[in-house]
Design brief:
Two copies of one chain form a homodimer. Chain A has a single domain, classed as Tetracycline Repressor, domain 2, CATH 1.10.357. Helices cover 75% and strands 0% of the residues of chain A. Chain A has nine helices and no strands. In chain A, helix 1 crosses helix 2, helix 1 packs across helix 6 and helix 4 packs antiparallel against helix 5. Chain A is elongated and about 55 Å long. The N and C termini of chain A lie far apart (44 Å). Chains A and B meet through helix 6, helix 7, helix 8 and helix 9 of A and helix 6, helix 7, helix 8 and helix 9 of B. The structure holds a DNA duplex.
Amino acid sequence: MTDTKTALLRSAERAARTKGFDGFSYADLAADVGIRKASIHHHFPAKADLTLAVMQRYHVAFAETCDRIDAAHTTGGARLHALIAAYRSALGNGEMVCLCVAFSISRDHITTDVRAAMGDFRQMMLEWLTATFTRGNGDGTIAQVADPAAEARAALALLEGAQLAARTQADPTAFDAALALMSSRLG
Amino acid sequence: MTDTKTALLRSAERAARTKGFDGFSYADLAADVGIRKASIHHHFPAKADLTLAVMQRYHVAFAETCDRIDAAHTTGGARLHALIAAYRSALGNGEMVCLCVAFSISRDHITTDVRAAMGDFRQMMLEWLTATFTRGNGDGTIAQVADPAAEARAALALLEGAQLAARTQADPTAFDAALALMSSRLG
DNA sequence: AAGTATCTACCTAGTAGTAGGCAGGCATTC
DNA sequence: GAATGCCTGCCTACTACTAGGTAGATACTT
């Protein structure tokens, strides 16, 4: 039996990524985890606390994913390919989007510290992508790189947009289709 | 004085695009339009009816935008540039996203006919984009077009992702930054 | 005995939606 | 031409339900 706090974080992350911040409730989490609604407040006094904890957990987990990718692959092309695969597998069966995407819509309903955490996450991703495009340009494993920072911003938008496409169509292959062009540039 | 039904549609579209489907209520619309909450039900019996009407109105309006672009510009590059500008201006000050993006998150909370309308909208955009990339490839005003259909899918994801970036950062220039690479391909 | 985790039972505020009424416009009918 | 009846648009006042959150009791652990 995993501890309840972690179970709540997991459930909340899944709920947020499938239904958005305004789309899930403490009642949903309680039913999912198997405790009473009021008991959640013992672990997370307010929804804002839970939301921030979910965001921070997500950030740490994704940073670790990036580290693992860097450790497993040396070329820029291979690393970008692995990141695309990570985003793709995070999709589930086309029902989940990145936490940032899910929270972006509810931007005005979340607290400023969660918004700040979203900004931190995006910043981390942009830096990693910029470094990866720079490397891929240097080692020749990513074609036609002119400006690594511009590539990074476009790639992040593309990854997030592709998740939306997959979700809208309830079809994970829509993600692949949206990324086909970028993938074809990787050697 | 515009008629109340149209005022409601306008208010609902704005609310949906800034707060998402789960983020706005009849009370919000009532306060915005200046009638009582219950009176909205006179025009739209259920929220699902209103939502569908908003989506259909949006679809028609965007189709007209595409027609206007086609009438005003002949080259593929100029047309794509104009579409990017249309998406950019629809952003407002970085607080509004496309209806499809907003509803995508709440996919499981909206009715099937609204989901179908979202699919129709995306299909229309993909067809228009494919035709535009084909034209831009033929007349040489869009560089490096290999597969117009793949370009269309990537472009739509990029446009929607760029809107999310602008919204997350509350900064419309984030949209420009995400699209800089694609814009540089247009002659 | 103390602290942690959970419970039942409740609260306030807000959700979509309903019931029934009222004022005024526009016909038709006597 | 006045009376009748129907319609639109909006109202007040309500229902049933869900939201996040609280208080206090109870059980389990150490």
